[in-house]
Structures are given as structure tokens and as C-alpha cells.
Amino acid sequence: MRHLCYLIVIFLITSVCPVYAQPVCVGFYETEVPFDSVCGGIGHPIADGTVVTILWDVDSDGPDFTDPPVPTAPDPNGDPRPYFNYCYFLMNGSELGLGPGLFYAPPFCSNGGLLTPNRIYLRICLPSIRYESLILSLAPGPSEIRPSWTCTAAPCEWDIVPPPIALNVQASTILCDYVQVAWSYSTSTGLDSFLIKRNGVRVGAVAPSATPGNMHFNHYTMDSRWALYTVVGWNNLYGEGEPSDADSGRARQLPGQVTGVTASDTICCRIVVSWNACEQAASYRIYRGLAGNPNMTLLYTVYAPQTTYEDVMSQPYTAYRYQIQAVNVCGEGPMSEFAGGSHDFPLGTIPQVVASDGTYGNMVVVTWDNHLFTNTARGYKIVRRYASGEDPDTFYVHDPNESTYQDLTARPGFLYDYCVLAFNYCGNGQSETCDTGYRVCLSAAGQEAAAADFRLYPNYPNPFNARTRIEFDLPHSENVRLSVFDIAGRTVAILADGMMNAGHHQLDFNAANLPSGVYILRMDASEFTATQKLLLLK
After folding, report:
1. What is the structure's pLDDT at 388?
2. Which of 126, 241, 239 is nearest to 185 (CA)?
3. Would you place residue 278 in the very low, low, confident or very high pLDDT band (cuts 50, 70, 90)?
4. In whole numbers, what is the pLDDT of the chain averaged over residues?
């Protein structure tokens, strides 16, 4: 089918050519036996782009290196000899799907008539071998020819000056959508054109300028990978000259979307923004906005390969969101996905700490003023020291809205120092505020006589502003949980949660953090449950 298509093309060309004699139009092909880099076919098929020259055996003595290419222009002396549309073509088997080392040449056509003598042949020059076809005699009209070939284990030996070597080859790396290859040359002797190759594959050709000097070629490509560019002089008889030194180049494309953007929320005094490197990026723009606000502002620009930025101008305890955009000479890439971040700030001193002095019998209740820290602390660190100099014990409360800690492990009758520090990702508060406290222990007899049954007393005062006292009785040692709920059923405080001795107990409920309203106190102890309504008025 491919042969038929070529014959149709050749027939159309021969039928429309304005000639003074019937033109020749030939389709040369080799589609079965690949040309190899070694005579006998033990190397590898030669690549697309290898030049096949069509020569005229003008002296009828067979192929040699004095034969010129077939003429491609009228004779300058007025001889009415025919001329052809080209004198060489390139191997193209891979491009046509035939496979490497094969070709199907475009129609080779004359303007009319036959050469005298009517003797042409084809030649392929490789570094260490050459292929030459047998002498061909063309016939008028369209035809297809599959030449017969000989392989000689010797390179081509043209009796002419080889083309010059291109000097100072430089391939660009920062231009958008193309690579500019520049070079210089000192002589035009033996030079018909320059071939430009990318990774050894021809990508273009340019004729030399009128006088030797500097030249360039723009290779437009969507392939942004690095490649080696060389420039090779070309002579229609000699073929390729010695290649130039290679230079690495690449064409830039618009950068893609930056991925892997993260913003820290556990670092003190700054937010660290990081992202994955984008291959095409020359720089990165960092945009910042407030969480929940669609407006984003350009914050800073960093240059590749940097892929992190520390935002030290952000306000503490503020939720920000960040986007990254890659930029290069081709323009701006798309914005990245959002990443949220925030940071803490060093905390100050808790202004007031109070530890109970035996009031609660089986525990020491430590309270503190937390109004400065509900929005800045991550929790509180309670440090308990015994006066004898024992190593301190440390307890943590991880709710920044809490202001009470019940120490059920204090030894009865021992005096302790209790210190409270607010903490966040910047560490502990700057200094400690302390108070002494202790617990007492009822005797066994006292425990039995302390109460006849479970009982939860009304809180006093009620209504109350900020603080109210909670009292209850236990007939025996029991796990007790005292919880405070808002009217929506959400837990807002845990006043006690653990084993308590028998007897009468009292606790202070500090509601300084809570808004005015109705709250429910519930006491759970084994099979006993009781509730009280608390009215907070501020």
C-alpha cells in the first residue's frame, strides 16, 4: 500500500511538470534489509537522519570520489541538461514505522529528460565503512527502484576539503519554548551548510552566512529536558564534517503547580512554610492571607532551589493560610493548594495560685487565674515540691480553659509547694507563681461517722458571680465525678474525678471563663447520681 501511494504521488508530479521532455520521477526505497553500522550486519542498524547522497557517474568509470552529486540547478554555462529536485535524502525508516536502517525516499524528479551519461548511484558514508549502490540507469516516467548495494570496510575518501568545525558552541538554558544554539566559524571553504543535532539527532540545518563569523539556530521544542547540542559542518560531496564540542541546553516551559505545601503550627515565634521543588521554577512566590478570608497578598519571593520560607512577621495565635506559585521566564504557574499555619509566643507569669490548706480532706485543690492564657496557652504544668527537698512531681492539665487541679496523691499532713506554669509550643511561662497546701486524712472512725448517706448540697451562693462553693457527703470511700454542663449538654468543667474518702467535702467552682447563664452540676458516685442547677450572673 505504501508503494502504491508513492507511485500515485510520482505519477501526479510527472503529469503536471512543465517539461521539454518527459521527466524522470523515481521512488528509491529499502524496506527489507536494514543498513548496519558494520559490513555483514553484526553491529546495529544505522539511525534516521543518516545522509544518502545521489551521485552522477559523469566519467562512466564507476563509483569514485571525483563524481559530483546529480545537478539540482540549471547549468550555469547554458547546457540544457536536466536537473533534479534534490541530491541527497535522509534515512527515515523509524519515522515511517519501517524500523531503523531502512528508508523510503521522497520522489526524486527531474525537470525533464535524462542525464548523459545516464548513470547515477547512491552512497552512504559512515565513520569506518561506506555503502554504494550499483550504477542505475533511469527511465522516463514514474518508477520505483530498490537498489542493490555493496559495503566497503573503509570510510569515504573525498578528494575535497572537508567542511570546517563549528567553534564556541553554546546552547541556551533560560529561553522559553526554544533552545538557541550559537556558534562561530572561521572559513567557508568546503562548507555548504551546518547541521544542528540534539543528542545526536538532527533537528535543523542552516546555510552559512555570506562571510564567516557568528551564527545561531533556534530549536523550538516542547521537551524541557536537558540535552546535548552539537553543530556539524556539511558538504554536499563530503557529507558531515567533524562535529563540534557539545553543550548542554534546555527549553523552559511554564512551571507546573507546586505540590506538598505545608505551614507549621508547632513552632515558636514564626511559621515555617515548605514545599516540593518544581522542576521548571526559577523562583517561588509566597502568598499569605487570613484563614477564612479569600484575599491573598504576595508576601515574599525566594529563588530556586530554595523550598522553605520562615514567616517571622506573622502575628502570634493568628490562623493564616499560604499558597506558593512557581515562576520562570515563560511566566507564572498555577497557584498551589492552601496550607494553614500559626505560631505561639512566649508566655508570661500566672498572676495568682492558691492551694487548699486541708479544706478538702482527702485532696489538695490547686486553683489559678487563667484569664490571661485561655487563648495563648496549650495547657498548664503543676509542679509539686515537698519542703524536705525531694525531687518535684509534675502534673499536666491540657485544657487552657481549666483553672483547677485536684491533687489526690499528696500525703496527708505533708506541706507542699504548688507552682503553676502555663505552657505552649514556646515552652513554659517565664516564671513560676507558687502557694503552699496540704491535705488531712480522717480516721477510720471519723469516716464511718462522717455521713449516713450520699448527699449533694445546694451550692452557695446561687446565683453567683465567678465563684460558688459545692458541698457533698460520702458515706464511704468512693470514686466521685463532679461535672458541670451548659444547657446544651456540653461539659464545661470537671471539678472532681477520682477516689475520695468518706465524709463531708467542699469544692470551689471558678466560672470566671464562662458566660452568664444556667449550668447543671451533676454528681456521680457508684449508684448515686444527683444534679443541681447553677445560675451564673456577671
Report:
1. 53
2. 241
3. very high
4. 87
Cβ burial, residue 251 (10 Å; 0-12/13-18/19+) = buried
405-418: per-residue pLDDT in tens? 999 888 776 778 88
CATH number of 167-249: 2.60.40.10
If you classify domain 444-536 with CATH, what class do you get? mainly beta
pLDDT tens-digit readout, 314-372: 999 999 999 999 999 899 999 999 999 999 988 888 888 888 877 776 788 998 888 88
Rounded to a whole number of angstroms, the CA Rg of the chain reads 47
Phi, psi of 230 (to 5 degrees): -130, 155
Distance CA 10, CA 143 (A): 8
- Domain range list for the chain: 2-152, 167-249, 262-341, 353-437, 444-536
DSSP-assigned letters across all residues of 90-108:
E--HHHHTS-TT-EEPPPE
**Residue 165 carries which DSSP code?**
P
CA distances from 112 to 9, 75, 348 (A): 17, 14, 101
SS3 170: strand
Confirm whether 353-437 and 444-536 share one CATH topology: yes
Distances, alpha carbon 268 to alpha carbons 287, 329, 358, 378, 424, in Å = 21, 37, 40, 13, 9
Which CATH superfamily includes the segment(s) 353-437? Immunoglobulins (2.60.40.10)
Is the domain spanning 262-341 CATH 2.30.130.10? The answer is no
